[in-house]
Design brief:
By secondary structure, the protein is mainly α. It has 20 helices and 6 strands. The chain has 2 domains: 244 residues, Serine Threonine Protein Phosphatase 5, Tetratricopeptide repeat (Alpha Horseshoe); 237 residues, Alpha Horseshoe (Serine Threonine Protein Phosphatase 5, Tetratricopeptide repeat). The strands form 3 sheets. Strands 1-3 form a two-stranded antiparallel sheet. A two-stranded antiparallel ribbon has the order 2-6. Helix 10 runs antiparallel to helix 11, helix 15 runs antiparallel to helix 16 and helix 15 runs antiparallel to helix 17. InterPro entries: SusD-like_N (IPR033985), SusD_RagB_dom (IPR012944), TPR-like_helical_dom_sf (IPR011990). It comes from Dyadobacter luteus.
Length: 488
Amino acid sequence: MKRLSYIAILLGTATILPSCQDQLDLQPISQTVVGNDGTGTAGSSITNAATAESALAGAYAIFRNGSAEYYVMDYFIMGDGRSDNSYAGADNAAWFEVDEFRILSTNAVAARDWSYLYTHIASANAIINNVPKVTDAALTAERKAQMVGEAKFMRARAYFDLVRLYGDVPLVVHELPTITSSNIEEIYDQLYPSRTSADQVYAQIIKDLDEAVAAVPKSGTNKMTVTPGAVYTLLAKVHATKQDWAKVKTNTDAVIALGYSLLPNFEELWDGNHENSAEAIFELNFTDWATGGNWGSSMFYGTDWKKFNTPSNDLVKAYDDEKDVVRKASTIFTANVTGKWADKYWPLTTFPFAYKMRKTDASQNIIMYRFADVLLLKAEALNETGDLAGAKTLLNQVRTRAKLPANTSADQTSLRLAIEKERRLELAFEGQRWFDLVRTGRAIPVMQAVKDGNGNSPNYSLNEAKLLLPIPQGEMDKNVSLTQNQGY
């Protein structure tokens, strides 16, 4: 009956669609399934080479503009703030809910990140579905294939985050036809789709990436071009999440064969003088405020107000226990903030900040994928398939740069934990830690073992259900086909 009521409302609005389109809200899936004008015609503007290139540029720009709140801020708090690496910081109640596993279905962060990711998917869908139809001779078949491949990477990347954050999510890969009074009932299930199983979403992600890898450009003007290296890296991450270690090895080997290398000094990755380096595989490039500046740096670093992603006592202890002076210095900055704010975890005389994004003039690049991550993923795959010697060789390659002694683990279990720890220390504040813990089944025991600076447990109320975010209540309210995650 509720569904029939929805259809009746849509039928009623569709009859007046031509006269008051601007006033209608017919945009489900966080305003992204249908077209930019609300009618399913987002791709209609892609008619020639120029408009196709403009659409692709717009899809790239979403990393820096349209969904920047996710890509320059939320991604890093979701990946580190929910883990043992950091506290939410600042004074935002919605982030405290996320950090402490007290999140509700009405949480503003869960709602906006769903919307941002589906916005990127809609942009990619417009390219994937419409660029192949362009007949302009100026747009060659090779260039069409490249553009579709780049868009498929973006769609796969967004779905990868969605399925890890929310579990089963609606899988939308086509644009809708223009909504009319005669087709609303027919396309209702496309307008308001139900959730698709995570396995099916992963299958689509892998399909998109397998199709993209041979088509995308081999290089670009900078590392913000989707290239085979970026596609292979994402494939490796997806297969690691699915624990298909043979395919992790295949894809990490493919990245290694492309000639990436570690920078000699860890600090060079973050000092702003070595951007788009030999280690970077996919990097978001920023220049200034006028071109989509990286304001995320100011969310994590600075003493003008209390910042997000405050490094945890547990992370600082992990660096100190490992005697990892090199990476700690590049990852955590401390300052005296006496009189500026209060904090229950840290003394104000030595208050820590996440330091990998430190340029607050909008020009700090963000390295989304880099070679050290790939080496450690391959090490993990080798260890899981019994090649401990090969795994330690790669692990020690990363440790050598950090000026740490070689790992000497004698068995698979201890080496597994050593690789987990190495990924934590190497990749802290790059949005990786939480997802590593979840995919390895370690999130609950690790978070239960966390201690603050006084040796007390924060008593996180984490259980199996809270590994996923809730489906946003706003999406539930406007889509009768959606169901809520267990525990919310």
